[in-house]
Design a protein that fits this description.
Elements lengths: L1 H45 L2 H27 L11 E3 L4 H10 L8 E3 L4 H5 L7 E5 L5 E6 L6 H17 L1
Parallel strand pairs: 1-2
Antiparallel strand pairs: 3-4
Helix pairs in contact: 1-2
Length: 170
């Protein structure tokens, strides 16, 4: 018992040094994250055209894409594919999109198309990024969502399940 106390007592300077490093890293991360968030907000508020749209798209993709990947994998278990997701990149910068996708933890299992001319937003009346459309097998838009909020994930799932249930009953 005495040896354990002695070891702990001798290790205390190392624990304190590690604690101090952790505190410094946390403070730096907090400062960097706050500064970056403020800069992104400022760019979007001032509306610097190219930067605001690129940062807005990145933020929305960062929020929505992992959820869609999880949803796709959950619904399409087994042999039959019940759900098809098509993601469409509108910024005309496929290199930026590829880098973003390689940074994700999960591989994106659905196709990501490009539309640099911006024809699809006009056709589907897209007013916000991202816009999620649930389209049934007949091609009719059944549900539309502008933007992405984590609070709405259950709504997405409920709507999708209702469509899948209709499809199974047909």
């Amino acid at each position: 018992m005495w040896e354990v106390r002695e070891i702990l007592w001798q290790s205390t300077p190392y624990f304190l040094a590690g604690l101090w490093v952790t505190i410094k890293i946390s403070i730096l991360a907090l400062l960097f994250g706050t500064s970056f968030g403020f800069a992104v907000g400022l760019v979007r508020a001032v509306n610097v055209p190219y930067l605001a749209s690129a940062l807005g798209l990145y933020i929305h993709l960062l929020r929505a894409t992992p959820f869609l990947v999880q949803l796709y994998k959950k619904v399409n278990k087994g042999e039959r594919q019940y759900l098809e997701i098509l993601a469409i990149n509108l910024d005309g910068q496929p290199e930026m999109m590829k880098k973003f996708l390689t940074d994700l933890d999960d591989e994106v299992p659905f196709p990501i198309l490009t539309d640099p001319e911006g024809k699809l937003p006009k056709k589907y009346k897209v007013e916000a990024m991202p816009t999620t459309l649930f389209i049934d097998r007949e091609g009719k838009i059944r549900f539309r969502h502008k933007g992405f909020e984590k609070d709405h994930m259950q709504t997405y799932i409920s709507e999708l399940m209702a469509l899948l249930k209709e499809d199974v009953q047909k």
